[in-house]
Hints:
By secondary structure, the chain is of the alpha/beta class.
Amino acid sequence: MPPKLILVEGINGSGKSTYVESLKQLYKNNRVPVILYRNGKPHPADMTRQALLNENEYIDFLNYCISIWKGSKKTISIEELISRIEMQVIREAIGIVLAYTKIDFPESSFQAAYEIVRNKELYDGFSTFDIFADIHKKRWRMFSQNNCMDNAIHIFEGVLMQFPLMELIGFYGMGKQECLIYIQQLLDTSISMNPEIHYLDVPDVRATISYVAEERISANQSKWIDSYVIWFEHTYYSKINNIGGFDGVIQFCHKLKDIEDYILAHLDIPTRIIHR
């Protein structure tokens, strides 16, 4: 049975973004329905940049957005603003999950609202492990239930190992075996989609990270590597090992790669290793 879910993995700079686009085009050229979920875009299974709020906190967020709207150009109605916010809400038994950076705000001034929910994120060590894991696995299970019967190929970029391992190792101090068990549990929720991993393997971690550190510069001239260093120095891994800066990031990426290799060697699902 061919895979319905293709999981493209590899460290930063391994070429995942280019690879998933070419894979998508390959399926389209063969008239196979395909859906690509890009890294950093709205995603049905990942939880990056999503905050867990109680009802009062969510109301406070809404009211803050409304106060910004009152001083804005009012290019949309207040009802439309609330509707756009509600579109990024998933209500769980333990609270409201809000994909706040995905809200289609009409003006940049609304981004000030990010700050009042930033420390409620599910990622970046703001959540307890039990809450993080519970919601994460529910997301994967729900995705599989909703899509296992369609006729499309679904492609994920970096959300099986890259982002979860950065959290599990960086903030929860997990080792190889614990990470393997966690990733296997995610895969177990999607077994009905016959998942397959495509892993982009790089020969030199430092050289790869150094290259993308020079290449990835945003429109406002900020560097990706500077953001990575700031994120890394916030982690438990950085603090417990007393490392930081660019060299600390390199050590962390070596650790990620080591654990990814261990996981790949022990998972019992089809895996393609693509050497870069």
